[in-house]
C-alpha cells in the first residue's frame, strides 16, 4: 500500500489562504464576504457536522482548520488515523493524540507536520508546516493574522514563518503519511510541481505563483534556483536572474553531485526534479544526497536514454532547466 501524498494536504491548506472568519453563519464559502470576529467558518461547521460532540461550533478554529484540510485531502477515517487517531478542536487534546502515538517531535520539523505553539499556560495554537529551510519553518494557519509572531485569534487563514527553535513552538505532531513521509508515487503531477514552486520561492526568492503549473516562469525559477546554489557552493558570483547564459554555463562547468554529498547544489537538484514532476524524496537546505534522490536521478536518466549512474552531472542539470 502506497503512503499518502503529503503535498495533497499542503495544496489544500495553501488554497485557503485569504479566507476570513465570518460575522454570522452565512457566506461561509466565500473567502472574504461577511467578515467578522464571531468564529463562524466553513471549517468549524463541517467538522462539527462530522464530530458534534468534539468539534464545537462556533468556536476558535485553528485546530478545526487543520483537521478540515486533512479531511478534505484523505477522507474522514484516514484523516483521523493521520492525526493520531481522531479529530479534536482543543489544541492540547490534538497534541496529546500525537504524544500517545509516539508521533510527537521537538527537533527539526518536516513538511506536513502539525505545528503547535505554547504560551505561559499551555499549548494554545496550531497550524500546518508547508516548508522548512536551514533557518525557518513555514506554516499555513487558521484563526491567525498576517503579522509577525504567533497570533492565536486573528480571524483568517495566513502563511507565516518562524525561526527554528522559536521559544513559542511547543513541538510538532508527525502524521503517519506512510513510506517516504508521503512522498510515494503520484497520480497527478500537480502536487509535485506545486511543491517545487514553493521550495523555489523560499530558496531563491523567485516570486512565482504557486499554482502547480509548469510554465515559462517556473522554468526561469529553476534556473534561478541553480544560480543561487552555485553562488552558495562555488562562490560563482552569478546574477540570479533566471536566464541561462554563458556565465551560468561556465559556472556549472563539469560540476556534479552524487550520493553521500551535502551541499546546496543537492537542494537545487531536488527542487528542479519537483518542477519536472519528479519525486526526489524531500528537500533539505543544504541538500543531502540520499537513496531516494539517487533513485529519482537514476529513473530520470533511464527515461532519457542515458546511462543510469545516479550521479547528477552538468548535462542532467541543464536538461532539468530547459
UniProtKB/TrEMBL annotation:
Residues 58-143 form the Peptidase C51 domain. SUPFAM superfamilies: PGBD-like. Residues 284-314 form the Peptidoglycan binding-like domain. Pfam families: CHAP, PG_binding_1. InterPro entries: CHAP_dom (IPR007921), Peptidoglycan-bd-like (IPR002477), PGBD-like_sf (IPR036365), PGBDSf (IPR036366). It comes from the Bacteria. This is Peptidoglycan binding-like domain-containing protein. The lineage of its organism: Bacteria, Bacillati, Bacillota, Clostridia, Lachnospirales.
Amino acid at each position: 500500500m502506497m503512503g499518502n501524498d503529503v503535498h495533497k494536504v499542503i495544496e489544500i491548506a495553501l488554497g485557503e489562504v485569504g479566507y476570513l472568519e465570518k460575522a454570522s453563519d452565512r457566506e461561509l464559502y466565500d473567502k472574504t464576504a461577511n467578515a467578522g470576529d464571531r468564529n463562524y467558518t466553513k471549517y468549524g461547521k463541517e467538522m462539527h457536522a462530522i464530530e458534534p460532540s468534539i468539534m464545537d461550533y462556533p468556536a476558535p478554529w485553528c485546530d478545526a482548520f487543520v483537521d478540515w484540510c486533512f479531511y478534505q485531502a484523505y477522507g474522514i477515517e484516514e484523516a483521523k488515523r493521520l492525526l493520531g487517531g481522531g479529530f479534536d478542536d482543543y489544541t492540547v487534546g490534538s497534541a496529546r493524540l500525537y504524544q500517545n502515538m509516539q508521533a510527537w517531535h521537538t527537533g527539526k520539523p518536516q513538511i506536513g507536520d502539525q505545528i503547535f505553539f505554547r504560551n505561559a499556560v499551555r499549548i494554545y495554537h496550531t497550524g500546518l508546516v508547508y516548508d522548512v529551510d536551514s533557518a525557518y519553518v513555514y506554516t499555513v494557519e487558521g484563526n491567525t493574522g498576517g503579522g509577525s509572531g504567533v497570533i492565536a485569534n486573528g480571524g483568517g487563514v495566513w502563511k507565516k514563518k518562524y525561526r527554528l527553535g522559536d521559544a513559542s513552538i511547543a513541538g510538532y505532531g508527525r502524521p503517519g503519511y506512510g513510506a517516504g513521509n508521503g512522498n510515494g508515487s503520484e497520480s497527478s503531477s500537480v502536487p509535485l510541481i506545486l511543491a517545487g514552486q514553493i521550495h523555489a520561492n523560499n530558496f531563491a526568492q523567485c516570486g512565482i505563483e504557486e499554482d502547480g503549473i509548469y510554465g515559462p516562469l517556473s522554468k526561469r525559477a529553476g534556473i534561478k534556483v541553480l544560480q543561487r546554489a552555485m553562488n552558495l557552493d562555488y562562490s560563482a558570483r552569478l546574477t540570479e536572474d533566471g536566464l541561462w547564459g554563458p556565465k551560468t554555463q561556465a559556472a556549472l562547468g563539469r560540476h556534479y553531485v552524487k550520493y553521500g554529498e551535502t551541499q546546496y547544489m543537492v537542494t537545487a537538484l531536488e527542487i528542479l526534479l519537483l518542477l519536472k514532476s519528479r519525486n526526489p524524496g524531500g528537500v533539505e537546505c543544504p541538500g543531502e544526497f540520499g537513496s531516494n534522490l539517487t533513485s529519482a536521478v537514476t529513473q530520470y536518466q533511464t527515461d532519457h536514454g542515458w546511462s543510469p549512474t545516479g550521479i547528477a552531472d552538468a548535462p542532467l542539470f541543464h536538461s532539468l532547466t530547459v
